[in-house]
Design a protein that fits this description.
The protein is of the alpha+beta class. The protein has 2 domains: 163 residues, no CATH class; 293 residues, Ribonuclease Z/Hydroxyacylglutathione hydrolase-like (Metallo-beta-lactamase, Chain A). It is built from 19 helices and 17 strands. The strands form 3 sheets. Strands 5-6-7-8-9-10-11 form a 7-stranded mixed sheet, sandwiched between helices. It has a 6-stranded mixed sheet with strand order 12-13-14-15-16-17, covered by helices on one side. The chain has a 4-stranded antiparallel sheet with strand order 1-2-4-3, covered by helices on one side. Helix 1 runs parallel beside helix 6 and helix 3 packs antiparallel against helix 6.
Length: 470
């Protein structure tokens, strides 16, 4: 198809973004464009973003290899430099001139053309010609293209490939090793990535982590989840955001002195998702366990996402009491006016807890599990996988030993939880309920909290083992 309305732009760490702008009135062309991008680089997710005001569909994908596939890419204005087709591009055009013309404005205006999709075999062969032309490119690019060649067998239609691209299947071994290690397979072929989206390094490792020396720096993480569900992503918490990394002072002097946060741009949820081949616009939903600054700092990085939160938590964040102002830092993380989705009580029963079902339009089975105490509207998030349930407990506890019987907790963490609790009695009661859940249903439900590095490493190791055997 004609790609006159498109561009390749550079991003940090050698990653490039291909953006193609198409008329929404021709959904067949939009679908084929997304499928073609997924065929050529299946490890780089091709997403479609709607520009509502302009009736434009933007198909985009991140990869370090797009300049190899578009040799016309270069510095400067396009109309001031020579742009010509390479020999392999000429062979594609000569074999399928109709497919090039059908993407141009005059051809699309012909009656009935929007209902006239080109044969699937044409798309398959065109992609094969492109791949064959790249045989002299670097070996690391050849390894990334191998899954695409395997998927271009006769009989595979555009609809097959488009459906696979949307469901996240058959991405092959081309993901980064560290990205693979964070992913766990959920039901219906979905995948959940365990990400650390912020770290704290206060002194007093033995008092905080329960190991090491008093003078050593502790290790505290921000364990967030990214779920590939349907045609988009779902985040559970965001950790710190880009603005936190660029302006740590907004986190407050008291918090920085006490917890020694280390917000870095490369560890934000947005940058980690980009490294996995996604874009900010791929994030459709954010499920917030609560709105503390280290859990909601990345909300401004995903302005188009719907933010799901319990009503009590949103009320506390928007109208904080005097003792709550520090944890919400004056609303700096929602000045962009997020798309709040409130959830109240009255859900189904889930292992003795209340479970509020969310995301009905996706294949993901996800529930909010109210666990008030740490904050007024604190909640856990339960996800159903092939091997049972995952329960992100947020800040209901801080150390894995608290879920053991008998429980244990490093002294500094025990004091910190008591100080930060909006309702100490409710926090202790819900923590006891979680401990009972772990004891009775540990084979069915895997629990983890937001800040324990042992649990984060455990889940990432399980994900890596599952990927290796799957």
């Amino acid at each position: 198809m004609y790609l006159g309305d498109g561009m390749v732009s550079s991003h940090p760490r050698g990653v490039y973004r291909l953006r193609i702008f198409l008329d929404r009135a021709y959904p067949v062309i939009v679908q084929e464009c997304q499928a073609a991008m997924s065929i050529v680089l299946p490890a780089s997710r091709a997403s479609v973003y709607s520009h509502k005001k302009d009736r434009v569909e933007e198909v985009n994908s991140f990869s370090q290899h797009w300049p190899h596939l578009f040799p016309q890419h270069g510095a400067g204005l396009k109309h001031k430099r020579k742009i010509e087709l390479q020999p392999w591009q000429l062979r594609v055009v000569e074999r399928y001139p109709g497919r090039l013309l059908r993407g141009t404005d005059p051809f699309r205006r012909l009656p009935g053309r929007e209902q006239d999709p080109a044969p699937d075999e044409d798309l398959r062969v065109s992609a094969l010609l492109l791949l064959q032309s790249l045989a002299r490119h670097p070996a690391h690019l050849q390894r990334r293209l191998r899954p695409a060649r395997n998927r271009l067998a006769p009989g595979r239609t555009v609809e097959h490939l488009h459906r696979e691209a949307r469901s996240g299947r058959n991405h092959g071994p081309a993901r980064r090793p560290e990205a693979i290690a964070t992913g766990t397979r959920l039901r219906c072929g979905m995948r959940v990535h365990h990400l650390n989206c912020g770290s704290f390094c206060p002194h007093g490792r033995r008092l905080i982590n329960g190991e090491g020396g008093i003078a050593e720096k502790a290790e505290v993480v921000c364990h967030c989840l990214a779920i590939e569900a349907g045609d988009g992503l779902v985040l559970v918490d965001t950790g710190f955001g880009l603005e936190d990394a660029r302006n740590p002072a907004q986190l407050g002097a008291g918090f920085r002195l006490l917890m020694a946060p280390r917000p870095r741009e490369e560890t934000t949820a947005l940058r980690q998702l980009e490294a996995l081949g996604f874009a900010a616009t791929d994030v459709r939903h954010v499920l917030a366990t609560h709105l503390d600054l280290d859990h909601a700092g990345g909300l401004p990085d995903f302005p188009d996402a719907e933010v799901h939160v319990l009503s009590a938590e949103l009320d506390a964040a928007l109208h904080p009491r005097l003792d709550e102002k520090l944890r919400y830092i004056g609303g700096a993380h929602w000045k962009h006016d997020p798309k709040w989705i409130r959830h109240a009580g009255g859900g189904d029963e889930w292992f003795g807890f209340e479970g509020i079902r969310v995301l009905p339009g996706t294949d993901a089975e996800v529930l909010l599990i109210p666990l008030s105490g740490h904050s007024r509207g604190h909640t856990g998030v339960a996800l159903r996988g092939d091997d049972g349930w995952l329960l992100h407990c947020g800040d209901s506890y801080f150390n894995h030993r608290e879920m053991q019987t008998p429980p244990g907790c490093p002294p500094a963490m025990r004091v910190f939880q008591a100080i930060m609790a909006a309702d100490g009695k409710a926090r202790r009661a819900n923590q006891e309920r979680l401990r009972e859940l772990a004891a009775r249903h540990g084979a069915e439900v895997t629990l983890f909290c937001a800040h324990d590095p042992h649990e984060l490493k455990r889940e990432q190791a399980r994900a890596g083992a599952a990927t290796a055997t799957g």
